[in-house]
Amino acid sequence: MAGARKGFMGFIGFWAFIIGFILAILAGIFWPANQTIVVVLVILGIIIGLLNVTAKEFMLFLLATIALVVVGNAFAPLTALRVGEVLGNVLSHIAVLVAPAAVIAAVKALWAVGKPGD
């Protein structure tokens, strides 16, 4: 994803991903119910989807997004020291970050498949 586009826009997209990922981890640990952080993660996810995900990376990106959504609450049974709850919160926040990017990437792919030409 980092090398998806060259120049300033690629730089912005790369840092949106890094900041969003770190924020998702911290929010999942310390502020799991903060709606402001969720909105920020969605906005960063939109930026990531618009600037970072290329056709070459599309399948891997969607596979990773699906995996995050599927295993989101798999750690819930780990009740010692609230490990399962914290891991679930972190994965949920990461899913909030990548879900808008996945939707944008999927729409881009559908557009590419549906447009006439080549």
In summary, what is this structure?
The chain is mainly alpha-helical and 118 residues long. It is built from 4 helices and no strands.
Would you kindly provide a written description of the structure presented here, covering whatever features stand out?
The protein is an all-alpha fold and 118 residues long. The chain has one domain (7-114). It has helices at residues 7-30, 35-51, 58-70, 83-114. The radius of gyration is 16 Å and the shape is globular. The model has no long low-confidence stretch (mean pLDDT 87).
Spatial separation of the terminal alpha carbons: 25 Å
**Which geometry do the CA atoms define?**
globular
Q: How large is the share of residues in beta strands?
A: under 5%
- Spell out the helices and strands N to C: HHHH
List the helices and strands and how they pair.
Elements: H1 7-30, H2 35-51, H3 58-70, H4 83-114
Helix pairs in contact: 1-2, 1-4, 2-4, 3-4
List the defining traits of the structure above.
single chain; 118 residues; mainly alpha; globular
